[in-house]
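step=encode ok
step=design start
structure_in=
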């Protein structure tokens, strides 16, 4: 079952498109994290989704958040995809589906993960979860709205 708002976000370590090891708990010491799972690099819907997060990046940065994308594609694919679309955030490789499993992100037919986005507060709790396979571009919008509510709720604690 996919994790929901109010649940603890499981910690993990994965490598980004540049081979750098990223640990969730380390990031959460400094800022909230927007974590989005997408099926694969270079598919039309996934490209719209990652580009929507790219286009909204200034809003996420203004709210003091780190954006991370995750798919099962490898680092080489991520590096080319990130470069091609000038992504200002890191995308992580979960080829063994370990983090997908931790977050309860299901795969259809065993190979195509759901499209799920989580907004995780510095407290390590999931404050918002959005699951919509066929609404890729909507994920960034929903995450930004949830992050703004979280920032207001915490009295600007996460903002600059």
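sequence_out=
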């Amino acid at each position: 079952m996919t994790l929901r708002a109010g649940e603890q976000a499981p910690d993990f370590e994965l490598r980004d498109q540049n081979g750098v090891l990223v640990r969730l708990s380390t990031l959460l010491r400094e800022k909230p994290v927007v974590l989005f799972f997408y099926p694969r690099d270079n598919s039309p819907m996934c490209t719209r989704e990652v580009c929507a997060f790219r286009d909204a990046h200034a809003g996420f940065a203004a709210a003091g958040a780190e954006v991370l994308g995750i798919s099962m594609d490898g680092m080489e694919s991520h590096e080319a995809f990130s470069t091609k679309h000038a992504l200002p955030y890191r995308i992580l490789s979960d080829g063994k589906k370990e983090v997908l499993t931790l977050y309860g992100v299901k795969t259809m037919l065993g190979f195509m993960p759901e499209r799920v986005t989580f907004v995780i507060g510095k407290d390590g709790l999931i404050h918002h979860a959005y699951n919509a396979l066929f609404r890729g571009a909507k994920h960034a919008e929903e995450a930004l709205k949830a992050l703004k509510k979280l920032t207001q709720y915490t009295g600007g604690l996460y903002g600059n």
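step=design ok
step=annotate ok -> Strands lie at 13-16, 21-23, 33-37, 66-71, 90-93, 107-108, 112-113, 116-120, 126-131.
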